[in-house]
Each structure stands twice: as C-alpha cells, then as structure tokens.
Design goal:
Blueprint: E1 11-14, H1 18-29, E2 35-38, H2 46-52, E3 57-60, E4 71-74, H3 83-90, E5 94-96, H4 98-105, E6 110-114, H5 119-132, E7 137-141, H6 147-150, E8 158-162, H7 165-169, E9 178-181, H8 195-203, E10 211-215, H9 219-225, E11 230-234, E12 244-249, E13 252-257, E14 260-264, H10 273-288, H11 293-302, E15 311-316, E16 319-323, H12 330-337, E17 343-347, E18 366-371, H13 376-382
Parallel strand pairs: 1-2, 1-4, 2-3, 4-5, 6-8, 6-9, 7-8, 9-10, 10-11, 17-18
Antiparallel strand pairs: 12-13, 13-14, 15-16
Helix pairs in contact: 5-10, 5-11, 10-11
Length: 389
C-alpha cells in the first residue's frame, strides 16, 4: 500500500513508532520531504502521521526500496537484517538514527548515557541532579520523550539523553559534553550481528565526547575513552583522588570521591549494590557537568528509583515483594538477585538469544523459581538442579 507525495523524496523514514513519528515532526519543521515505510499493514501512528505530513508517501508491507532514496532514517526497532535495510546497506546508502539528526542540530550541550543495565536510572538521576542545581534541563532519547521532539522545546542549558545500542549503532557524529558507559554485558543478540557488534555500538558513545565517565571494571572502556579531554571513573572499590567509589569507615559503607566520604549507602533511597554503582556514575557525570555536590546528594537521598526497577511493592507476612521486571537480560537479573539473601524468583518473557544459565549463578540465595511465559522451558533448564522450579 502506498500514497503518492507531491514531490519525489530522496530519504526514507523506516518505522512508524514513537521514534518514527518524532522524525516526521522534525522533518516537517524543517520543510524536508520523506517517504515513510513500515513493514506492518496497519501500524500504530498511521493516522497521526497523516496529520503531521498529509502529502507524504507511505509504503506499508514488503521491503521495496524506491530508486530515489539516498538516505534512510531508521527507527531503533528495525535491525540491519531487515530486508529493506539489507538492500540499502548493499547499495551503500546512508542509514542513520534519530540521534544522528539530533547531534547535528542541537544548539545546547548534551550528556549521553548508555549501558547494558542502569541507563534509565542514571539518566533520571542526572536529570534530577541538574534540576536540583537550578539548571534548565531536558531529558529523553531512549527513555521518555524522543530526542528530536526535545529540539522543538525552548533550548535548555543541557540535554540528558539515554541511548540504546541500536541508536548508537547508526550514529556517526556524537559530540557529547559528557559520555557515560555504565557496563557492557551480552544483550540484544537477536538484533545485533554478534556480541562484538553490540559492544562496539556501546563504546561508540565515547567517540566524539569531550569528557567521559568509565566503569573501572571495564578495561576496554578506558581504552576507548582515552581520547577524551577528561575521564572520571567509578567502581565498587576505593577510588583515587577525583574519582568515585566506596569506602568503609566505622563499619559503614560510604559513597566517596577520592578520600572524601559523601553519603552513607544506608541513606540511599534505592535498593541494591547495583544502584550504588548507578549513584556513583551519576555523581561522576554531574561532577563533569559542574553540578553542586550537595544538590546531587540530596537527590540520592530522595529518589526511590524508577518503576519496575527494583521497585518495592509490598511486605506481606515478613516477605518483601520487589518488581524488577525491567531486568530483561540474564546479567541484569543476576545483578538484582545479589541484592537479597533468600529469593523466590518469578521469571519469564522472550529470550533475546542469550544464555540464561547466568541467572543461576547464586544458588545459595535461591529458594525457588516460577518459570512463566515463552521462555519458561529455557528458564527451567537453567535452574535445573539449583532449586525447586
């Protein structure tokens, strides 16, 4: 199915989800024409696209690549293995993300945050830290408002962007004021060609950055960030001067910068050791942005975490119920499991081509597993002999 445009377009927008519609609004604001493609015959957002671009050509279903096309702006949900993109890449056409367009057009500096786990939490923490310090800030990207929609609002002092590996994979130009990579563990292997491509996409966040935040446990991160003017690290060990980590004093553990004790981990509003890491990463990024330390620490005391991420639900009969359903990879799940001594795990969903046995690495903590959904059998096999399933 297609509708004809007034004039022939040389670029195509692939995918009519939230990102695709934000691209349409961006192109319309810039008087730029495009063909819009979605492999679904009735994609959501079709009526909204008609309101944004009444005269645009829309191609639904199939994988036809019009001859006039020179560039494709692809939504993150569409992998390079899609027949349309395979044809485009074979013809050596430019395939970019919405973040590439954002980076070319943004007139204010931005912080770019990525990682296999924790990026939404750190993005939100850094946003609130900027607000607490009185900065005018907008946040979005992979979390919340699409990046290109942020450009339609009044220009802030700084943007804070959460970026996925999909977006980074198709972004060549990313001059972030601060680039943050929290961690890298195998994920999204149903989208990326292999684990190496996934990792390279994540490390791309440092490519054009002025300053970098690195995890000391990731030696490769230090190598990729070496070109940045300033590098601040974080980790669970004792930090060197100017870097962030944990220190112990009088049997209490503290978030610390160098020798300076900043905040007892007991005062953090968020659950778990991994959230201590998230807090340290946010502090490091805020430091590089010049934020006031007391304002940042106030956020850490008050912010309880995001929904579905180690979210306390209820205490019933001395049992705590915690919702961590955003843990969609074995690594994320195993990190969450380490936050508790005795666990009944309810796990399910769709496997993204990953080894689920990593979730069974804490057998002494496991009371039982309830395996549900499409991956129930895979989960049951991963915990066979570990605990009751």
């Amino acid at each position: 199915m297609s509708r004809s445009p007034k004039s022939k377009a040389t670029q195509m927008v692939a995918g009519l989800g939230a990102t695709g519609l934000s691209i349409a609004r961006y192109l319309q604001r810039n008087d730029s024409n495009a063909i819009y493609f979605d492999s679904r015959e009735q994609p959501p957002g079709l009526d909204e696209l008609s309101e944004i671009c009444p005269d645009a050509e829309v191609v639904l279903g199939g994988s036809r690549l019009p001859r006039s096309i020179e560039k494709i702006i692809a939504s993150p949900g569409i992998p390079d293995s899609h027949p349309l993109l395979k044809k485009a890449l074979k013809k050596k056409l430019e395939v970019v993300s919405d973040i590439e367009l954002f980076a070319r057009d943004a007139s204010a500096p931005f912080a770019a945050i990525t990682g296999s786990n924790g990026k939404s939490t750190v993005t939100t923490l850094l946003y609130h830290m900027c607000v607490a310090d009185g900065r005018k800030v907008l946040a979005g990207g992979n979390l919340g408002e699409p990046a290109l929609d942020l450009l339609h609002e009044e220009t802030p002092e700084i943007y804070v962007l959460e970026l996925s590996s999909f977006q980074l994979h198709r972004t060549q130009n990313l001059p972030a004021k601060v680039a943050v990579l929290l961690n890298v563990s195998p994920d999204h292997l149903d989208w990326h060609a292999d684990e190496n491509e996934y990792r390279q996409s994540k490390y791309r966040v440092y490519k054009d950055a002025a300053a970098a935040v690195i995890n000391r446990a990731d030696e490769q991160a230090a190598e990729y960030a070496a070109r940045c003017d300033r590098v601040v690290s974080f980790g669970l060990d004792s930090p060197a001067a100017g870097h962030y980590g944990l220190r112990t004093d009088d049997d209490q553990t503290y978030l610390a910068c160098g020798e300076t004790l900043l905040l007892s981990t007991r005062e953090l509003a968020m659950y778990g050791l991994h959230n201590q890491l998230n807090a340290l990463a946010a502090l490091a990024a805020g430091d590089l942005l010049g934020l006031d330390m007391s304002a940042m620490l106030r956020v850490l005391v008050e912010f309880p975490g995001l929904p579905h991420r180690m979210q306390f639900v209820a205490r019933i009969g001395a049992v705590d119920y915690v919702n961590d359903s955003k843990a969609t990879s074995p690594h994320a799940a195993s990190v969450a499991l380490r936050a508790f001594d005795s666990i009944v795990l309810i796990a399910g969903g769709k496997n993204k081509g990953l080894d689920l046995s990593q979730m069974a690495c804490e057998p002494h903590r496991m009371r039982a597993v309830v395996a549900i959904g499409a991956s129930a059998d895979d989960i049951a096999r991963a915990f066979k002999g570990v605990c009751t399933v």
